Write a sequence for this structure.
C-alpha cells in the first residue's frame, strides 16, 4: 500500500513538473533594427531592449542592432536585407517607405493584433489613419512610435547682437536671415551666416516650408508661387546668407555649423534639442517656421514594423507594443525629446514643460508629409539634392528646377 | 603472351582517348565558384537589362526588349556620366601612372631610410576606399577643412573654398583623391619591374655614352613595357568601376558633377530600378571592353614579337 501511495505521489509530482515546464513560455529571440542620431540615443535603445528583456516575463529576448540612417539609405539597406532573405524581425521605419515594402509583400498586416491590443486607444486614431493612407490600403502595417515637427532653432544672443526679434511672418524670416549674416570680429569676413541651409539629402523637408510660405505646394511645383519659394531659397544662398557649403550640407553639417556658431538659425526637429541645450544652455531657443501666403512644416515620423519573415510574430508585437505605449515609449521620448504617440506619455511633466515640445505642438496643425509615391525615395535621395544643387549653383533657373522636381516626383 | 603490334597500337589509342577525371575534379571547385559568383550574376544582369525590373513596382516587372538601352541612349545623365567616366579614368589613371613612376624611380635609388619611405608610401593603397572618402571629405570641408586652413595660412586664398559644394571644384577634388590612392599601386608594380632590369644594360649604355634621358627611354621604358601595359589596364578597369571614393565624398553631386557611370549605376540600383541599373552596367562593361580588347591584343602581339 505504501509503495502504491509513493508511486502515486511520484506520478503526481512528475505530472505537476511537466505542466509547470510546459507552462513556461518558450524562449524566443527578436532581432530589432534601428538607427540612432548620436551615441547617447544608441545607448538608450540598448537600455530599452535590456529593460524589456528583463521585465517582459514571456521569455522574449530582443537583440537591438544599430544601422546608420545615412540620409535615408537605412530604408534601402533594410529592404535589400529582407529581399535577400535576411533582415530582422522588427525594425524602425519611415512612412515614406511603406509603398515599397507593402508592394513587395514584406510587412505584417497589424489589423488583427491591433484589434486585440488593450492599449490601442492610447494612440490617437488619426495616426492610424495616416498609417493606412501611407500603405494605400485599409490596413495598418506600421506601428506608431514617435513624431517630430520641424521648427527653427535660433541663438538668442546672436539675435540680440543683430537687433533681430523672433520672426512672426515669412517676410520677417527672410529679413532675419539677411541681418543675422554678420562679421562679428571686424576682420572683413563673414563669420556668422543667417541660415544653416540643408542642400543635401533630407533638405527637401525644410525647403518645403519656403514653397508653401509663398503659396505653392508639392502637388503643383510649377506654379508661380512655388517657383517664387524656390527663388527665395536660391537667393538666400546667392546673397551669401547661408554657408557656401550649403549645397552639400546634410544633417551633420547643419548641426555642426549651428553648434559651432557658424549659423544663427537652422531647421531641425526636437530630436536635436538635448544636444543643443548641452552646447548652449539657455542660449538656444526655437520658433515655428512662420507663415506667409501659406504655411507648412514637415512632420517627421518614426514607426516600427514587423517583417513577414519573422518566425515569432506574437513576441515581435509584444516588443512593438512596448515601444509604442509601454515604458520603452517614455524612455525613448524622454531621452531623445521626440514627440510621443502615447497620450499617457504626452501628459508627463517632462513633455508638458519642455519649451521645444511647445514649439513642436505649435507647428503640429500645419505639419505634413511629402506625398508618398513610389517615386518618393528616389526623389528624396537623388533628384531633389542634385536639382537644388544645380539651381543654387546657377545651372538651373528656379522655374527649370521646379519643372524637373515636378517631373521627378509626379512623372509629369 | 605477346601482343601484336596492331593490338598494342589500339591499346595506346584507347588510353589516349580515355578521359582522366582528376584534372576536372581538381578544377571543379574553382569553376563552380566562378560560375556561381561571377557568371550567374553577369547573366542575371544581362537578363534584367531587357526587363522593366523595378522593385518599387514589382507587379509591373516584364520583358521590355531594348527599351532600357534606348532610354539610356536618350538619357542626358547617362552621356554626362560617360563623359565624366572618361575624364575620371583618363586623368585619374594618367596622373597615378606619372606620379607612380616618379615614386618608383625614387624608391629604386639607395638612400637612408628607404625601407621606411617604401612602407609609408603604401598607406594610401592599403586604406579602404570608404575611409579615404570620409577622410578627404573632411580635408576638403569648406568650413573646417585642413586644406582651406593650409591655403589660408600660406596666403593663397582669402576666404574658404567650398571644394565639394561647387560644381567647378568638386570633380577635380575627387580626381585628386583617386590619384592619391592609386600612386602606390603603380609605384609598387613598376618598382618590382625596375629591379628586374639587368644593371649590365645601363653599364653598356654608359660605355656607349648614353645620357640619362636616353637610358630612360631606351632601356627603362622598353623593359617595363609589359608591366606598364598590365598595371595600366588593371587600374583603368578598377578606377572605371570604383564607387566607394566618390560616393563617400559627394554621392555623385553636387548637381551630378561627380557622377561617373559606375556611381550612376550604384545610385539607380539603390533606388531599386535594377533593370535600368543593369543596362548601364552592361554598357559600362562594353565600354571597358572597347578599351581592354585592343589593349590586350597589342600586349600579346608585342609579347609574341619579343619571343
Amino acid at each position: 500500500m505504501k509503495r502504491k501511495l509513493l508511486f502515486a505521489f511520484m506520478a503526481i509530482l512528475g505530472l505537476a513538473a511537466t505542466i509547470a515546464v510546459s507552462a513556461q513560455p518558450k524562449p524566443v529571440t527578436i532581432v530589432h533594427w534601428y538607427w540612432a542620431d548620436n551615441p547617447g540615443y544608441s545607448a538608450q535603445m540598448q537600455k530599452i531592449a535590456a529593460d524589456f528583456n528583463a521585465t517582459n516575463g514571456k521569455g522574449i529576448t530582443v537583440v537591438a542592432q544599430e544601422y546608420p540612417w545615412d540620409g535615408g539609405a537605412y530604408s534601402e539597406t533594410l529592404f535589400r536585407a529582407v529581399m535577400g532573405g535576411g533582415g530582422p524581425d522588427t525594425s524602425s521605419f519611415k512612412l515614406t517607405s511603406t509603398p515599397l515594402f507593402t508592394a513587395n509583400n514584406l510587412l505584417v498586416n497589424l489589423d488583427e493584433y491591433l484589434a486585440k491590443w488593450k492599449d490601442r486607444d492610447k494612440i490617437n486614431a488619426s495616426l492610424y489613419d495616416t498609417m493606412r493612407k501611407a500603405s494605400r490600403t485599409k490596413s495598418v502595417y506600421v506601428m506608431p512610435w514617435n513624431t517630430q515637427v520641424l521648427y527653427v532653432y535660433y541663438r538668442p544672443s546672436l539675435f540680440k547682437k543683430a537687433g533681430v526679434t523672433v520672426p512672426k511672418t515669412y517676410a520677417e524670416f527672410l529679413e532675419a536671415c539677411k541681418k543675422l549674416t554678420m562679421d562679428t570680429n571686424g576682420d572683413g569676413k563673414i563669420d556668422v551666416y543667417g541660415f544653416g541651409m540643408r542642400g543635401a539629402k533630407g533638405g527637401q523637408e525644410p525647403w518645403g516650408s519656403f514653397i508653401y510660405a509663398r503659396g505653392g505646394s508639392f502637388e503643383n511645383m510649377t506654379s508661380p508661387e512655388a517657383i517664387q519659394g524656390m527663388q527665395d531659397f536660391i537667393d538666400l544662398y546667392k546673397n551669401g546668407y547661408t554657408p557656401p557649403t550649403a549645397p552639400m550640407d546634410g544633417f551633420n553639417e547643419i548641426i555642426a555649423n549651428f553648434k559651432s556658431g557658424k549659423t544663427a538659425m537652422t531647421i531641425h526637429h526636437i530630436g536635436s534639442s538635448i544636444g543643443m541645450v548641452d552646447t548652449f544652455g539657455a542660449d538656444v531657443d526655437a520658433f515655428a517656421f512662420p507663415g506667409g501666403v501659406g504655411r507648412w512644416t514637415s512632420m517627421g515620423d518614426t514607426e516600427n514594423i514587423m517583417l513577414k519573415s519573422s518566425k515569432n510574430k506574437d513576441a515581435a508585437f509584444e516588443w512593438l507594443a512596448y515601444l509604442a505605449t509601454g515604458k520603452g515609449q517614455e524612455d525613448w521620448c524622454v531621452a531623445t525629446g521626440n514627440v510621443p504617440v502615447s497620450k499617457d506619455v504626452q501628459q508627463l511633466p517632462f513633455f508638458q514643460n519642455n519649451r521645444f515640445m511647445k514649439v513642436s505642438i505649435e507647428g503640429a496643425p500645419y505639419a505634413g508629409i511629402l506625398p508618398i509615391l513610389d517615386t518618393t525615395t528616389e526623389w528624396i535621395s537623388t533628384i531633389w539634392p542634385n536639382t537644388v544643387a544645380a539651381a543654387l549653383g546657377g545651372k538651373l533657373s528656379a522655374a527649370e528646377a521646379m519643372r524637373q522636381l515636378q517631373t521627378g516626383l509626379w512623372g509629369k | 603472351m605477346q601482343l601484336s603490334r596492331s593490338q598494342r597500337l589500339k591499346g595506346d589509342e584507347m588510353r589516349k582517348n580515355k578521359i582522366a577525371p582528376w584534372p576536372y575534379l581538381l578544377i571543379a571547385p574553382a569553376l563552380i565558384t566562378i560560375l556561381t559568383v561571377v557568371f550567374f550574376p553577369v547573366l542575371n544582369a544581362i537578363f534584367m537589362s531587357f526587363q522593366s525590373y523595378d522593385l518599387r513596382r514589382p507587379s509591373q516587372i516584364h520583358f521590355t526588349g531594348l527599351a532600357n538601352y534606348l532610354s539610356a541612349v536618350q538619357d542626358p545623365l547617362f552621356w554626362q556620366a560617360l563623359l565624366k567616366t572618361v575624364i575620371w579614368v583618363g586623368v585619374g589613371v594618367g596622373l597615378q601612372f606619372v606620379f607612380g613612376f616618379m615614386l618608383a624611380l625614387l624608391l629604386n635609388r639607395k638612400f637612408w631610410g628607404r625601407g621606411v619611405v617604401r612602407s609609408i608610401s603604401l598607406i594610401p593603397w592599403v586604406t579602404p576606399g570608404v575611409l579615404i572618402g570620409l577622410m578627404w571629405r573632411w580635408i576638403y570641408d569648406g568650413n573646417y577643412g585642413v586644406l582651406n586652413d593650409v591655403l589660408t595660412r600660406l596666403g593663397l586664398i582669402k576666404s574658404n573654398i567650398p571644394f565639394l559644394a561647387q560644381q567647378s571644384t568638386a570633380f577635380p577634388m575627387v580626381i585628386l583623391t583617386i590619384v592619391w590612392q592609386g600612386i602606390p599601386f603603380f609605384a609598387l608594380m613598376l618598382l618590382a619591374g625596375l629591379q628586374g632590369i639587368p644593371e649590365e644594360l645601363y653599364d653598356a649604355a654608359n660605355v656607349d655614352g648614353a645620357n640619362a634621358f636616353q637610358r630612360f627611354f631606351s632601356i627603362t621604358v622598353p623593359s617595363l613595357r609589359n608591366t606598364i601595359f598590365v598595371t595600366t589596364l588593371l587600374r583603368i578597369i578598377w578606377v572605371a568601376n570604383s564607387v566607394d571614393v566618390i560616393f563617400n565624398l559627394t554621392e555623385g553631386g553636387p548637381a551630378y558633377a561627380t557622377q561617373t557611370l559606375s556611381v550612376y549605376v550604384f545610385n539607380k540600383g539603390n533606388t531599386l530600378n535594377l533593370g535600368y541599373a543593369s543596362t548601364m552596367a552592361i554598357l559600362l562593361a562594353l565600354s571597358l571592353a572597347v578599351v581592354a580588347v585592343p589593349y590586350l591584343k597589342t600586349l600579346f602581339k608585342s609579347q609574341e614579337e619579343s619571343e
In short: Chain A has two domains: 28-149+300-361, 151-298+368-410. The two ends of chain A are 92 Å apart (CA to CA). Chain A has a mean pLDDT of 91. Residues 2-23 of chain A form the longest helix (22 residues).
